[in-house]
Write a structure and sequence with these properties.
Distance between the termini: 39 Å
CATH topology of the largest domain: Rossmann fold
Order of helices and strands: EHEHEHEHHEHEEHEEEHEEHEEHH
Bound molecules: nicotinamide-adenine-dinucleotide
Strand content: 15-25%
Shape: globular
CATH superfamily of the largest domain: NAD(P)-binding Rossmann-like Domain
CATH class of the largest domain: Alpha Beta
Number of strands: 14
Radius of gyration: 19 Å
CATH architecture of the largest domain: 3-Layer(aba) Sandwich
Length: about 325
């Protein structure tokens, strides 16, 4: 069976992907340094899957160590999730974000042998505040935060290495991943994402305040609230396996970018209504002023991934809300 090296496998998306890869019987080597996670997922993988090995390593620090690991394991695929992802924090700690996100990617690209196939976790943040909606891969790239700059730079770095070192690479630009895998093994850590809508809904139910502030109801959208493209974590993870199949079938020196989104814009009010309905909760809304940095609408044109990767998001907003709450409702 094929070997996959997964960076950031202790985290939300990398952990969910790792779980699925192990269930599919891949041999997995995971790397993480727990800068934004605990060892909960790693303990579970070690206990339940004999084909899982793990290295605790900061990928941004020692290029030589990363090279040794790659040489020993000789992965067929590398899926690079490791990175810091908080836009606000990136503005106050640019040095940390450049060092952590870009140097890690650099060390990985240096360690990849010719012919390696690599999938990279990019983000819709690379499009900045796009006036064109839905956003296709042809839309302009624009950095509007340090985090965005590190994703754009990592993509460029990967593109150059792909061309000069014969590494086949796909950058997947995620829209708004939410929810948890239905098995409830890997669960998003909601505690450190206080400004995102789904974590906020979960927080207000947990602390029984049952009311959320919604920033702005005067946007030029159907109901006046901001619209986003939410994508179920299981659809997102499936997109990575489609990318793996595609990259396996295609020629040398491949470099591609794809949007992973549903192509549907869902408003804040629609998401709250769905959450209340499917989970029998009663969260109320308190409208406040618009929040600086929030865009009116942001959603994907996923046509390219639908056609070339033969992948399509299938989960509904109701399923995202249900699975997000189901995974955490029994936690204390
Ligand atoms: N979750 C989202 O909304 C979202 C959206 C777009 C893109 N992304 C990207 O997807 C990737 C995974 O995101 P996530 O939501 O799973 O985040 P996460 O924080 O849950 O997981 C990232 C993991 O990477 C590890 N890590 C970070 N820097 C490291 C380093 N230098 N060495 C080793 N391990 C390191 C962290 O400890 C963590 O376990 C990130 O690159 C993120 O930028 C996430």
């Amino acid at each position: 069976m094929k070997k996959i090296l997964i960076t950031g496998c202790a985290g939300y998306i990398g952990g969910t992907f790792c779980y699925e890869a192990l269930k599919k019987n891949y041999e997995v080597l995971g790397i993480d340094n727990f800068i934004n996670s605990t060892d909960k997922n790693i303990k579970y993988f070690k206990k339940n899957f004999s084909k899982f090995r793990f290295v605790d390593l900061d990928l941004s620090i020692s290029g030589e160590k990363v090279k040794d690991i790659f040489n020993d394991f000789a992965p067929d695929y590398v899926v690079h999730f490791a990175g810091l992802k908080a836009v606000g924090e990136s503005e106050t700690k640019p040095d940390l974000y450049w060092q952590n996100n870009v140097l890690s990617t650099m060390n990985i690209m240096e360690a990849c042998l010719s012919g390696t196939r690599l999938i990279f976790s990019s983000s819709a943040t690379v499009y900045g505040e796009s006036v064109i909606q839905p956003i296709s891969e042809k839309c302009a790239i624009k950095s509007e935060s340090v985090y965005g700059s590190t994703k754009i730079s990592s993509e460029l770095l990967i593109k150059d290495y792909s061309r000069t070192k014969n590494i086949e690479a796909i950058c997947l630009r995620y829209f708004n991943p939410v929810g948890s895998h239905k098995d409830g093994i890997v669960v998003e850590d909601y505690t450190n994402k206080p400004n995102n809508l789904m974590p906020k809904l979960i927080e207000v139910i947990k602390n029984k305040s049952n009311e959320i502030s919604v920033f702005g109801n005067d946007y030029n959208t159907q109901d006046g609230t901001g619209e986003r493209d939410y994508i179920h974590i299981s659809d997102l993870v499936a997109g990575h396996f489609s990318a793996i199949e595609y990259i396996y079938d295609n020629e040398e020196n491949l470099f591609k970018t794809y949007n992973l989104g549903t192509g549907k814009a869902t408003s804040v009010l629609e998401l709250v209504e769905s959450f209340n309905r499917v989970n029998s909760t009663n969260i109320k809304i308190d409208f406040t002023d618009r929040r600086k940095g929030d865009v009116e609408v942001c959603y994907a044109d996923p046509h390219l991934a639908n056609c070339e990767l033969k992948w399509k998001a299938v989960y509904s907003i109701d399923e995202m809300c249900r699975d997000a709450w189901n995974a955490v409702k029994n936690d204390t």
